[in-house]
Amino acid sequence: MLTVILECQDQESELAQTLSVLVAGAVEGLVSDVVVLDHGSSDGTSRVADAAGCRFYSNWDIKDIVRSARGEWLLFVEPGARPQAGWIDEISEYVALNKLPAHFTASRGYRRPFLERVRRAAPPLELGLLMPKNQALAAARSGMCLAEFVKGQKPRKLSSELIPSWVARAAR
Fold first, then answer.
1. Nearest one of 93, 59, 50 to 73, comparing CA atoms
2. How far apart are CA 73 and CA 75, in angstroms?
3. How many CB atoms lie within 10 A of CB 61?
4. Beta-strand relationship, 82-83 and 31-38
5. pLDDT at position 153
6. pTM for the whole thing?
7. Confidence (pLDDT) at 114
8. What is the pLDDT of residue 111?
9. Residues 158, 94: contact at Cβ < 8 Å?
10. pLDDT under 50: residue ranges of the chain
């Protein structure tokens, strides 16, 4: 079972896009719960999370959130990111056979312009992060954001692609 954790602020439409893709994972029995960590949104982010059955927190400590996760594996993704075809089967197999963190492959259909890729590093969670709960608990510190879980990790690469969140932001 997998707990998906997203951190957002005023990203109602991006959150809705990500949650719509996660429904298939819940139907297949892979996604056990989704946690939305909010930073004071003034849009309908809380309504979208509530309508989708997510646990929504506007006041939270990451250690408590990780500890309360129902899944034995955690998937950290940015609102707006959308895993592509085959992600459910691949993650199911990966968590059954591995103990190391992993991330998705960048979508071939949505690539940043070449100069932008060269000039600056991609955001830490652009490709998501799949991590065992026990490793996340060991890394969690009060006050940290989700992107900090990536630091020091050498995640394996899944073959499933992820459309990054910047695509959804650009479509606004």
1. 93
2. 7
3. 14
4. unpaired
5. 86
6. 0.92
7. 76
8. 81
9. yes
10. none
DSSP β-ladder status, 129-132 and 2-8:
unpaired
Angle between helices 87-97 and 12-27 (to 10 degrees): 70
* 3-class secondary structure per residue, the chain: CEEEEEEECCCHHHHHHHHHHHHHHHHCCCEEEEEEEECCCCCCHHHHHHHCCCEEECCCCHHHHHHHCCCCEEEEECCCCEECCCHHHHHHHHHHHCCCCEEEEECCCCCCCHHHHHHCCCCCCCCCEEEEHHHHHHHCCCCCCHHHHHCCCCCEEEEEEEECHHHHHHCC
Residue-level pLDDT at 36: 97
- For the beta carbon of residue 13, count every other beta carbon within 10 angstroms: 17
Q: What digits encode the pLDDT tens for the residues 46-66?
A: 999 999 999 999 999 999 999
Contact 31, 4 (CB under 8 A): yes
| Tens-place pLDDT, residues 100-126 | 999 999 898 888 777 777 777 778 899
Tokens encoding 156: 């394996």
CA distances from 37 to 8, 27, 59, 146, 171 (A): 6, 23, 8, 9, 23
